[in-house]
């Protein structure tokens, strides 16, 4: 292969490698392909550890490799500022451009924006609330139809039926539709339903590996243009 072609094959950045700083934490891999659950870990312990930056950087590697990471232990001792700092540092310590920061949600200034449990709103946090969602969709349900939509069949953004399940959650930076999408997102459940409410996850990498070579070649030639 010519030298020029060899240069074109080089990675722009060397992939980060896991350093082992989280080996003391108990975990289970949820599936062989995607997902890791830390069964007893507390985010505050990581955030205030002597080697916090090392642990947060390693956590970024694990999230990138496993697709999604769950913390089973209750994390409600985290303040809003700590939650934002945690999310910001995971991205910052894993190579995010210096000029970038936490995403400002487009609904932050919307009059219908749901406040957090303390009654306040935050430009970097979007509150997912099933009761608020029902009020929002109620105003949209009858548009273009004589009968209102059956809200029990409306899907919420986390895969839960809005009228059957009651939950309350804070989410940071889940704006993958943006021209410059978020690299990490953090979801904190404040109130969980008695049953159901599971979020479904899938690995785009695994899908790509399993599709036929002709389909893969077709997809490789596609480009996306932001509107």
Automatic annotation (TrEMBL):
The keyword Iron applies. Keywords: Dioxygenase, Iron, Metal-binding, Oxidoreductase. One of its GO terms (cellular component) is cytoplasm. Residues 177-226 form the TauD/TfdA-like domain. It comes from the Eukaryota. Pfam families: TauD. GO terms for molecular function: 2-oxoglutarate-dependent dioxygenase activity; metal ion binding. This is TauD/TfdA-like domain-containing protein.
């Amino acid at each position: 292969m010519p030298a020029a072609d060899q240069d074109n094959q080089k990675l722009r950045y060397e992939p980060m490698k896991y350093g082992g700083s989280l080996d003391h934490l108990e975990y289970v891999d949820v599936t062989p392909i995607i997902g890791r659950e830390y069964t007893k870990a507390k985010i505050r312990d990581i955030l205030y550890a002597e080697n916090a930056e090392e642990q947060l950087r390693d956590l970024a590697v694990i999230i990138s490799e496993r697709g999604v990471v769950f913390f089973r232990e209750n994390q409600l001792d985290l303040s809003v500022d700590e939650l934002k700092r945690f999310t910001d540092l995971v991205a910052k310590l894993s190579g995010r451009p210096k000029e970038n920061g936490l995403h400002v949600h487009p609904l932050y200034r919307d009059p219908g924006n749901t406040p957090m449990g303390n009654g306040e709103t935050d430009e970097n946090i979007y509150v997912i609330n099933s009761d608020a969602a029902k009020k929002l969709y109620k105003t949209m349900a009858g548009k273009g139809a004589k009968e209102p939509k059956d809200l029990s069949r409306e899907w919420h953004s986390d895969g839960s039926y809005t009228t059957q399940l009651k939950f309350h959650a804070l989410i940071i930076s889940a704006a993958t539709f943006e021209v410059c999408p978020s690299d990490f997102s953090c979801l904190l459940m404040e109130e969980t339903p008695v049953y159901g409410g599971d979020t479904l996850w899938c690995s785009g990498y695994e899908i790509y590996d399993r599709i036929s070579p002709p389909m893969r070649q077709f997809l490789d030639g596609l480009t996306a243009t932001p509107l």
